[in-house]
């Protein structure tokens, strides 16, 4: 191979990188010119340096951080082979992660679609439900009237590393009984649904992974309004009694935001459901 | 739900985000406090704003740029469902891309491994080769003595969008003839191997996609030195004649960097091979 010197502009053109990138590589000691003119400060590169840029560009292409590229430069061919094998594992991890995200999006979409399909508000209907995994914790005197978004702060913190996704709603559980006033209802548990069915380990001591079992649920949904809450509950009870159904679960209350716009009043959709047989 | 006001510190804790992130979201108009005290400039957030942060965090988790999150906030539930479906497609594209990178790494590794397995330098041996796709162009008076890395600049530019990876070596093609001196050799073509076998379209007019066909190749490798070049070529010829083989291809010359270290003299490994039957 013939040796030749190139200006930074020539080098950039030959290597198909920007002059800015070459200056940056020089600054971070990743790839320095072979020679700098002490009078003009002009950088000059050798023809043989082009292969170094091949390595840098190739490793950049597979997502290697520039600091790692520095190490890779100094490796023997077999060292470089091991290094690339390690990079391959990182790519596999990225793919596994994206696949998990994909699965979670699928579940979220299914739940969003279901909510959009709710036949009509303030009417009772029957719904076949798939099993849902939830994280639950004791409700400590929480009730429909004093529940806040902040009540879910600890649950969200626990669910976040499991699901990534948070906007599939939150819930509460209370016994199925003949309540007269909304003030009579005290939650036993509050919960957050999780998206994946993966093993859930290392939860805080006051939380537990549970299932909302698959089955037929009697179901009513409404845009949350404190005045209408107990009325919807009574509709649910009446439906069950009229149809002589046997209730086989607690009441699950699930709510989710209807709008995320900062310019709009908060609107929550609230669902009440019990499993029947 | 009960409405409450939180300080930025409380809000950060409740939402499991940093105070810095909340300040940044405020600055870029993504998520602003419900109320700012005009005397102290302290920010206050409403409890109901927590669900907005759920959306922001969820979309961040699936890789949505913050600018897009702004749009998503204003969407109806069904608009949001469509939006998430679009995000899903982007994730699929990322996965497809990573899969391509993975396949390219596999091919690069195979080629690197093969080079590491070269039984010994300056000795002729036979090798079964798989088919390789190359991009070639006319050599325009290039010969072993005047070839530079820069000679490959145009080819690299064409190969880069196809393969991403560049450091699998470069090559030249010349007819199999009885050359006496290195000066007698003129390349017909120079080429760059590509990694994938995908359709190669839109090459510059002076380039062409070609194959180095699978088959048995007579093969010699050496660390490049101009003095030894012709000697290696003669060894190759002698082996073919001694074994009364029929040559069924041009001579393929392939070279690659042995070291990418900026502190070392450039070392190239050079391979000469012809297909025989």
UniProtKB/TrEMBL annotation, chains A, B:
According to the UniProt entry, where is the signal peptide?
none
List keywords of the entry alphabetically. Answer: DNA-binding
Query: Does this UniProt record's set of keywords contain Lipid biosynthesis?
Result: no
**For this protein, what is any one GO molecular function term?**
DNA-binding transcription factor activity
List the residue ranges forming a coiled coil, or say none. Answer: none
**Stretches assigned to the HTH merR-type domain:** 5-75
Q: Which InterPro entries match?
A: DNA-bd_dom_put_sf, MerR-type_HTH_dom, MerR_fam, Reg_factor_effector_dom_sf
Q: Which Pfam families match?
A: MerR_1
According to UniProt, the name of this protein is MerR family transcriptional regulator
| Lineage per the UniProt record | Bacteria, Bacillati, Bacillota, Bacilli, Bacillales
């Amino acid at each position: 191979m013939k040796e030749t010197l190139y200006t930074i502009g020539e080098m950039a053109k030959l290597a198909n990188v920007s002059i800015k990138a070459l200056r940056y590589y020089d600054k971070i000691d990743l790839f320095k010119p072979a020679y700098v003119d002490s009078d003009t400060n002009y950088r000059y590169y050798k023809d043989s340096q082009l292969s170094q840029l091949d390595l840098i560009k190739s490793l950049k292409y597979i997502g290697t951080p520039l600091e790692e590229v520095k190490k890779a430069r100094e490796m023997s061919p077999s060292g470089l082979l091991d290094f690339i094998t390690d990079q391959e594992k990182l790519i596999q991890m990225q793919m596994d992660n994206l696949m998990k995200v994909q699965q979670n999006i699928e579940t979220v979409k299914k739940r969003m679609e279901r909510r959009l399909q709710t036949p009509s508000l303030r009417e009772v209907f029957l719904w076949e439900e798939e099993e849902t995994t939830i994280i639950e914790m004791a409700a400590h005197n929480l009730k429909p009237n004093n529940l806040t978004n902040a009540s879910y702060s600890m649950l969200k913190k626990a669910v976040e590393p499991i699901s990534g996704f948070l906007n599939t709603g939150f819930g509460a559980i209370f016994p199925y009984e003949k309540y007269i006033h909304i003030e009579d209802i005290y939650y036993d548990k509050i919960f957050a649904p999780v998206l994946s069915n993966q093993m859930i380990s290392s939860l805080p001591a006051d939380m537990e992974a549970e299932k909302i079992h698959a089955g037929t649920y009697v179901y009513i949904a409404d845009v949350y309004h404190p005045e209408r809450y107990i009325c919807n509950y009574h509709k649910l009870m009446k439906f069950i009694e009229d149809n002589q159904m046997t209730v086989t679960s607690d009441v699950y209350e699930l709510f989710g935001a209807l709008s995320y716009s900062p310019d709009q009043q908060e609107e929550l959709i609230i669902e009440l459901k019990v499993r029947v047989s």
